[in-house]
Septin (Chrysochloris asiatica), 467 residues
Amino acid sequence: MFQTNLAMKAPCMASQVCEDEQRQKKQNIRSLTMSGHVGFESLPDQLVNRSIQQGFCFNILCVGETGIGKSTLIDTLFNTNFEDHDSSHFYPHVRLKAQTYELQESNVRLKLTIVNTVGFGDQINKEESYQPIVDYIDAQFEAYLQEELKIKRSLCTFHDSRVHVCLYFISPTGHSLKTLDLLTMKNLDSKVNIIPVIAKADAISKSELQKFKIKLMSELVSNGVQIYQFPTDDETIAKINSAMNAHLPFAVVGSMDEVKVGNKMVKARQYPWGVVQVENENHCDFIKLREMLICTNMEDLREQTHTRHYELYRRCKLEELGFKDVGPENKPVSVQETYEAKRHEICGERQRREEEMKQMFVQRVKEKEAILKEAERELQAKFEHLRRVHQEERMKLEEKRRLLEEEITAFSKKKATSEIYQSQSFVGTGSKKDKDRKKDQGCRFEVLCFDVRSHETSGGQTDAEGS
Ligand SMILES: Nc1nc2c(ncn2[C@@H]2O[C@H](COP(=O)(O)OP(=O)(O)O)[C@@H](O)[C@H]2O)c(=O)[nH]1
Ligand SMILES: [Mg+2]
């Protein structure tokens, strides 16, 4: 296949010869004719052999509502039962599920990854439904970029999971695109090759289908959604590809069921009123899709993914990191220069931040110091106040004590005088009332003496007023 393609490409290469000659002249390259066989003509064969040995990988992303026929179509496309189980309609978020399979046709091995959007279109709020898909595609680009940037990289053995094509399944409503479809395709078109397909095309009549296709395409154009165009720069396939571009979006029917039509078993969907044959071009565009996707443009889809979508991701990512190809005044800048400039910038930034942090620290310390000083002042004032109160209380107590002592002295004197008086003149006399009063005065005196003593022993802490 590859060799026949090369043979067919030969005439188109002839037109390039003139251009090549002009370029060679500019670059000061001389064309020489060899006098005998050398052998590098086998280079394309070497390339084919190496590719066959290495095998190929192809990654398909299926975006569409649950139950729209994604799994059935993929099974039908690869004539295999991939055993993708039915998914529920009740997932709270959109989730991407990738599954890789090894397929072989003749001696060509294909590592096929099918990525399914589980739960797409099932939530009430579908505003962010496209985000997990965008994130998934970016994550695969990032993984490849990381491998590319490694010092010891092994891109030959690296499992390239970048999405090569997105089959976008549109409901056969016959009306127009849903907002969810427009929003999702708009967010994906710069990241992946989108091939829109009208799913379950057996659910729409032939005349309605034509109008629906026209409507869909005009809506995509008016909303600026870029879908994948089959390439027309290669003369060998330009004709078929441009004819197929006019058929987009393909209206497809999927089925793994075999039905007997005439004397042949064909893949079809059988209804009470008739049979829809999957591989009949009068019934649907399944054959067109398979031809375009697998037989004719699989390599272009892989190439577009690498040269267009991945390149864009890589460029944005490296620019984000500060790498540029040209500096001011359009002068070329080497990676080393960019690295040095970036390092310088980062060092400057770090110093500036360090300085800022130092100043902030000093400021904070000053603020804390002021707060502490204020607290100290308040404490000192409180202490002084308490000391004064304490001193005043002590003075009051001293005063009370002095008064008490005076009273005690006076009382002692009085008592002594009365005893003398009693012993001299009134021995055995005196009314009972007099005797009681004296006894009472004696008791009061005892109590007062006790109070004063206990006050002294407790360091003046007893309530002087109470006593
Ligand atoms: N009418 C019709 N039904 C289909 C078609 N393809 C699949 N189905 C049916 O739609 C249902 C869901 O299909 P499935 O492939 O599991 O959908 P998925 O959830 O998108 O993977 C199944 O009952 C299929 O038989 C189709 O082209 N036409
Ligand atoms: Mg499915």
In short: The chain has eleven helices and nine strands. Strands lie at 56-63, 95-105, 108-118, 165-170, 194-198, 250-251, 258-261, 264-271, 274-277.
